[in-house]
Write a structure and sequence with these properties.
Helices cover 68% and strands 0% of the residues. The chain is mostly helical and 155 residues long.
Length: 155
């Protein structure tokens, strides 16, 4: 099993520069219309994934990624059952968790869409929320597929 300090140290070394940057709003500017994000980022940052695999080893990254995959799948399913009015804090917290872990593995698109939801959970309506969940599901599925292909190529 991978020890948490080892994994955390490897993650920190593999994250050469931040994937996400928040853009501050201009004071007094009108709020833009809330729409679901359309990320054009690649599903997976190959070099970041490769760096993490080199740091902790291919078998260990496969083990940790399998746990991430199972946990994120359950988290995304749970987000679909949230009450948008009552559970905004949970939605933001779940999006934050997905954002950080996805960034660790180089799942850029999933991380970006999650970051958007984390920042905007308090102000979105249900139609935008479900569009974002659809975007998260798609980014998760494409990221998992690419990581599985990268792992096979590295084996």
């Amino acid at each position: 099993p991978v020890r948490k300090p080892l994994l955390l140290a490897a993650m920190m070394r593999s994250l050469r520069e931040p994937v996400l940057r928040d853009q501050p709003l201009t004071p007094g500017a009108p709020m833009p219309k809330m729409v679901a994000p359309q990320s054009k980022a690649p599903s997976v940052a190959f070099m970041q994934f490769q760096g993490l695999a080199q740091e902790i080893g291919l078998s260990e990254i496969n083990e940790v990624f399998a746990a991430f995959q199972a946990e994120t799948s359950e988290r995304l399913k749970g987000m679909r059952t949230c009450n948008l009015v009552a559970d905004r804090t949970r939605i933001s917290r779940d999006a934050h968790t997905i954002k950080g872990t996805a960034a660790t593995f180089g799942l850029v698109r999933l991380s970006e869409v999650s970051a958007w939801l984390e920042r905007n959970a308090e102000g979105i309506d249900s139609s935008v929320y479900f569009e974002v969940l659809d975007a998260l599901d798609l980014a998760f599925a494409s990221g998992v597929t690419e990581v599985e292909q990268l792992a096979k190529m590295a084996a």
